[in-house]
Amino acid sequence: MFTRPDDWAKLTWQQKRDLRLDRWINGEGIKFDSPEAEKNYKARATRLAKAVKMEIPDRVPCAVPTGWFPAMNAGVTLKEVMYDTEKMKWAWLKFVDEYDSDTFDGTLFFQAPVSDILDSRTMKWPGHGLPDDSHSAYQYVEGEYMKADEYDIFMKDPLDFQLRYYLPRTMGIFEPFADVPSFSSFEGLPQRLMVMAQDPRFQKFMKAIQEAGKHVPALQKADYETSQAAYAKGFPAFRGGLAVAPFDAFADNLRGTHGMVMDMYRQPEKIHEAMEFVLPELLNGAVSMADMTDCPVIMMPLHKGDDTFMSNKQFETFYWPTFRRLLLDMVEEGLIPFPVAEGAYNNRLEYISDMPKSSVVWMFEHTDMANAKKTVGKVSCIAGNIPVSTAYTGTVEDMKEACRRLIETCAPGGGYILSGGSTFDMAKPENLHAMMDAAKEYGVY
Amino acid sequence: MEGIKNWADLSPAQKREERYKKWLAAPGVKFKNKEAENLYKERVTRFIKALKMEEPDRVPCMLPTGYFPAYYAGYDLKTVMYDYEKQRDAWMKFMDDFGDMDTFGGPGLVLPAPALEMIDHKTHKWPGHGVADNVAAYQFVEAEYMKADEYDKLIMDPSDFWLRTFMPRQAGAFEPLARLPHLTAFIGIPIFFLGRFADPEIQQAYKTIFKAGEEIIKWQETIGVVAREAIERGYAGFSGGFSGAPFDMLTDMLRGTRGIFLDMYRQPEKIHEAMDRLVPLVIQEAVETADMAMAPIVMMPLHKGERSFMSPKQFEEFYWPSFKKVLLGMIEEGLVPMPFAEGNYIPRLEIIQDMPRASMVWYFEFMDMARAKATVGRNNCIAGNLPISTMVTGTPRAVKEGCRQLIETCAPGGGYILSAAASMDQGNIENLHAMMDAAKEYGVYKK
Asked: pLDDT digit string (tens) for A203-258?
């Protein structure tokens, strides 16, 4: 748990970040397996921190984009690991033992039994909407979970909106909440809750919640133990929390792509109002996650700002201004925003270059890395983007060659992390080794 | 309102008219007999006309019965708070014995003490629990249930604030709710939110809430039985719910008098921001409650806008603007707000008089009713204010005389409801009869 010194408010963002980075690099609270593991951990974290700060590390850091690869590597299906935390833990630690990387990507624990009990309608996963042997971990089911005329209801009272509008549409067990009056009144709330407790439908709900709740501690324990074991073996986490761009918060989770695009023409002012409204909330979430995990890096998967979803004009009107402010606010708190630009960001490079030097790390999927290096790469560390196709179908030579070219393009002067365009769930095992080999062979400064 | 086409297109007056129609029609009520039905319609019509600033057959009367039925039946507030059967019997007996009255107040404000005990309710004391057994009232326990630096929690996510910040302080049984994390819809899955439900203390809280809920249901059944009986016998229900002024909500429940007055100097903008946030919520709550009720009148007890609490300048800056927004918001939806101005509102008359005609009713406690009639009363119905001292200690004759004077002052032209300044919880039933008699004897409008 990160605690702030008394003079926190007087520090510059760089000083705040250094305090956070120091704790992370020192691995406070980690019981390392051996002095060597501790040395490795600190070397890896230092390497990553230097890249983030656009200094020159000993070599290019390499973040193997693990994804669900450990399940395949261990010969178990995604369904098995999703329903069996022990199996998940075993598979992930097996991966940590067998593969070298400068980061530990986390467990991706997805608790399928809990989602079954909650009757989640926004996700499909192996055994629940996807085939048991599916190679895709989950599929998000997009919908208008907030209707076009519900922005004001959402902003008036977010928890009330969640309980009575959003959750009844996205989780079966919350259906009874769709029929109850608002929770906004404090005078009536306790009595309301007590009376609700008598309704058989809510009793069913509470039973389900309790049932689901029973699974969660096991999940949290397994997740915690797996991560701690990985850190103890010398692999630092490069993700202290998750955040999303304000536009995506609405486009992905609430309005859906179709709804959001309509709103951009029919009620643009509502989108702006709502994005302003969630901005502090998103910031608070990111700060408290980073405080809790002692890792200042906040991963931000980006979706609807991609080249194909909107024009530059729309990007600069709807997507970038609030997103940029969120990034700046996070930086001001000493966090390291780590946006993952899914899709292509070739048309956005000029915009996103407008940030304080070395304050953000940009991960790219299909973006042209030479252009990225020349633009955003001048002010920010960049990461990416070995094609998934190469990792899945290429030879070791192909893989090493792809890495070599990326290092040649992006590494000069520092500020580069070798990584994939997206996760390597079904990569050839030897290609993951090849990636690390390439970093060591070509990435030394 | 449900069942009305084009509700959104109606004017406030048309919406109010629809709500009056519903009150008069009493959908779903099986009257005991034709006479009861006729009496009901007569009584409701009398109120509606007074509210519309028209002349009814005679001045309508709201008797200040309060907890009187409990004492009349030989019990006290404590007894009926703990024993719902006695509560029901007492109110039934009063109904049987009294006879003709324009409206009948049920035991809805007699809180169920067993439920309060189970949840370790901390914001009230009641007879036998913090105040003496023979006290005829509750005592609110004022405190800073919201701290000076917690305005933003309320402003950002009100329901979340009630659930995780306010309720844990309101009752011991809700304390574990403070351990719930903040639920947001932005990052998908609320699994970790739900995880806390496995916390044994939160499960215990749920069990307590469940048990207290059983009590609440029993108590509500009692209230339901009495209310049904009253309306079937032809007594008009008058209340369509309770609400209040945003400033009072902040002061009474959250910041306390001391806290809010410091805030008025130290962080006035936070008070305004919080009240802006509360306004739509208060309106929404009032509309939802009234939609479920028969009558469209919303009772609004007022506290800190009274003359001794703040200056006229402070009233105009902190109290009135948001309160007026709430009133107008309710009126917009066809509700009839009935602020009950506790204490002295004489210096406020000029400020509060500027409201749409025949849209609401002002109920006064300490007031110069002639001045009220000449200001607020020109546009809107007024109610009040026979001194409670006369009600409790005066003779029936003194009560009748007081009522006569009130009627002479306030009734001309319509727009007046005869009532007392507060409720007479203990006293002589003859004084209630005297008030009713006065309405019939002096309150008739000549055709």
From this structure: 888 888 888 878 878 888 888 899 999 999 999 999 998 899 999 999 998 999 99
By percentage, how much of chain A surpasses pLDDT 90? 75
pLDDT higher for B245 or A207? Answer: B245
Residues on chain A touching B156 (C-beta within 8 angstroms): 158, 280-281
Task: Report the chain B residue with the minimal C-alpha distance to residue A188.
Answer: B285
- B385 cis-preceded (ω within 30 degrees of 0): yes
Q: Are A336 and A290 in contact (CB under 8 A)?
A: no
Q: Pairing mode, if any, of strands A297-302 and A336-341? A: parallel
Alpha carbon A375 to chain centroid, angstroms: 24
Burial class (CB in 10 A: 0-12, 13-18, 19+), A4: middle
Percent of chain A scoring above 70 in pLDDT: 99
Per-residue 3-state assignment (H helix, E strand, C coil) for B303-344: CCCCCCCCCHHHHHHHHHHHHHHHHHHHHHCCCEEEEEEEEE
Q: Rounded to whole angstroms, how far apart are CA atoms A409 and A334?
A: 29
- In 3-state terms chain A splits into helix, strand, coil percentages (rounded to 5) of 60, 10, 30
> Cβ(A97)–Cβ(A233) under 8 Å?
yes
Q: Which residues contact B161 (CB under 8 A, 6 or more apart)?
A: B146, B150, B153, B154
Whether B366 contacts B348, CB under 8 Å: no
User: What is the phi/psi pair of residue B361, to 5°?
Assistant: -140, 130
Indicate yes or no: CB of A186 within 8 angstroms of CB of B162: yes
**B190-205: average pLDDT:** 70
Burial category of B299 from C-beta neighbours within 10 Å (exposed 0-12, middle 13-18, buried 19 and up): middle
Torsion of CA A124, A130, A133, A136, to 10 degrees: -60
Q: Which helix (H) or strand (E) is A294 found in, with range?
A: none
- Cβ-contact A394, A402 below 8 angstroms: yes
- Residue A164 structure tokens: 């009575």
Determine which helix (DSSP H) or strand (DSSP E) holds A31, and give its type and residue range.
none
DSSP state of A53: T
- Assess contact for B234 and B31: CB atoms under 8 A: yes
Say if the Cβ atoms of B159 and A282 lie within 8 Å. no
* DSSP state string for B259-275: HHHHHHHH-HHHHHHHH
A296, A290 Cβ separation under 8 angstroms: yes
Indicate whether this model's pTM tops 0.80. Answer: yes
Longest dimension (CA), chain B: 71
Test mutation, A118, A157, A173, A199, chain B, max B CBs within 10 A: A157
Q: Which residue from B minimizes the CA distance to A203?
A: B210
pLDDT bracket for residue A193 (50, 70, 90): confident
Q: Tell me if A440 sits within 8 A of A102, measured CB to CB.
A: no
> Do residue A181 and residue B288 have CB atoms under 8 angstroms apart?
yes
List the beta bridge partners of residue A120. A171
Alpha-carbon distance of A103 to A74, in angstroms, equals 19
> Are B167 and A249 in contact (CB < 8 Å)?
no
- Asked if B210 lies within 8 A of A157 by C-beta distance, the reply is no
Phi first, then psi, for residue B309 (nearest 5°) are: -85, -35
Backbone Cα Rg of chain B: 23
| Pairwise CA distance, residues A186 & A192, whole Å | 10
Could you tell me if A185 lies within 8 Å of chain B, comparing CB atoms?
Answer: yes
CA–CA distance from B123 to each of A182, A380, B143, B168, B252 (Å)?
A: 23, 54, 8, 11, 10
Residue from B223, B222, B70 nearest B136 by CA:
B70
Name the band, by pLDDT with cuts 50, 70 and 90, for residue B101.
very high
The beta-strand segments (E) located in A189-259 are: 241-242
